Task: structure prediction
Amino acid sequence: MEAKLIESLEIAPEVRHFVFEVSEVEKFTFVPGQFVSMNEVINGKKITRAYSIASAPSDSNRFELCLNLVREGLLSPRLFEMRPGDTIEIRPPLGMFVLRNPPRDAVFIATGTGIAPFRSILNAQLNETSKAFTLVFGVRYESHLMYRAEFEELERKYPHFRFLPTLSRPTESWSGRSGHVQAHIQEAIGDRRDVDVFLCGLKLMVDDVRNILKEMGFDRKQIIFEKYD
Ligand SMILES: Cc1cc2nc3c(=O)[nH]c(=O)nc-3n(C[C@H](O)[C@H](O)[C@H](O)COP(=O)(O)OP(=O)(O)OC[C@H]3O[C@@H](n4cnc5c(N)ncnc54)[C@H](O)[C@@H]3O)c2cc1C
Result:
């Protein structure tokens, strides 16, 4: 199927939020946390890359992505060059990075654009009667805290949602958490071992946090992860 770019907006340095529309369907269906695959022929070769959907399912045929530019990469620079009205071939949503059934209280740990699936899950599934969710979000600089205002708003609205942003390279004006997400696992989870923990980002972080969680006594089934590289 084909997706048409409606708009793309820079939301952090070298990070853009994209809105696509799939004209051939009335409603674009997916489970929060899933990804779409995008295909493009580059230098005569078909390139496929996966992108987590950053929006909640709706009654429309639109979906949103949050992408960072990999300067030396093949596809992401192309996506950053797309203009409204341009199209790209996609494959329908897939993936198991979704809340388990029955749902349990969950801790979400993201770095960088690893935030995308959690924005989808939170916007779709956090409500007055939902399970409790904690989001640990690690980036380098304050300007990279994508969707910060949205998560702060959710935190004001829902007492059972906690937002724990952390900066690995804070400036003096930052009075919040600092260091990598690994430093805040204890604060996010405490003594609980009855929660699911979802990890999304680059391999280095995901593998490290998985090891920490296993040492803390988590069963592998409770650790659900998506690696971007
Ligand atoms: C299930 C899944 C979901 C994904 N969702 C997203 C998403 O929501 N947003 C997003 O921006 N990316 C996401 N990715 C990563 C994406 O698929 C591409 O790998 C990324 O856009 C780079 O593609 P490229 O063709 O530009 O670079 P390539 O030519 O494929 O790679 C260049 C190099 O950059 C490294 N690299 C790959 N991804 C990144 C990254 N994100 N940051 C820094 N270095 C990287 C690779 O290891 C490689 O060495 C996802 C990956 C998977 C598997």
Summary: The pocket of flavin-adenine dinucleotide is lined by residues 35, 49-52, 65-68, 70, 72-76, 113, 116, 226, 228-229 (CB under 6 Å).
